[in-house]
């Protein structure tokens, strides 16, 4: 049946019954997929939002052709600085509950309201995002652990060029170097506050600053935050 109206058969080779439902599906609620999403939000209303948040940690696959899929894909391509970007196979929305969001919102209120959307590439040791949306139990599967608890400074590599922090980048190509086609990439919302512009490696965030930015020639951007509450994953991007 049509994936939008759920009343009529799919048109041959399509997911919807016709052009009307195909157009509506581009703006559909990511949970019920039967009603239009509410403006800038991902759900049609409180009912679908409530159902989804009760199931967290949760990711919802965004159908190809949906306006949100197109937005994330275009941003990824626009952030690719070197060579040809790899083909994206799947994009998921990371669903957040209040316990996940409140520390971030409090930090943002304290440090500054501006949000930056930055990439973080990481490894996976399971089929999460490929053949399953169930998080694995492995303590060493980076992607599953990030989606359970968000990022943790305390388990970051203390030998990093800019010290023990959470690294992300405005360049999707830079982040891809850390995950490759077999890994996973997160598009995150990040609060930078006062940023120290670094020209070389340092081991701590300088006093009076909240983050460090290293941006040689605009192609190899590294942005580092040192507080767990400064970053939250928003979208998951898969390549195979």
What features would you describe in this structure?
There is one protein chain. By secondary structure, this protein is an alpha+beta fold. It has two domains: 1-54, no CATH class; 57-238, Phosphoenolpyruvate Carboxykinase, domain 3 (Alpha-Beta Complex). The protein is built from six helices and nine strands, in the order ααβαβαβαβαβββββ. It has helices at residues 19-25, 46-54, 67-78, 98-111, 142-149, 172-179, and strands spanning 58-61, 90-95, 116-122, 166-168, 184-190, 195-197, 211-214, 222-225, 231-238. The strands form two sheets. Strands 1-2-9-5-3 form a five-stranded antiparallel β-sheet. A hairpin with a 7-residue loop joins strand 7 and strand 8 (222-225). The longest helix is centred in the middle third of the chain and has 14 residues, at 98-111. It starts with 18 loop residues before the first helix and ends with a strand. Residues 69-213 form the PARP catalytic domain. Pfam families: PARP. GO terms for molecular function: NAD+ poly-ADP-ribosyltransferase activity; NAD+-protein mono-ADP-ribosyltransferase activity. This is PARP catalytic domain-containing protein. It comes from Candolleomyces eurysporus.
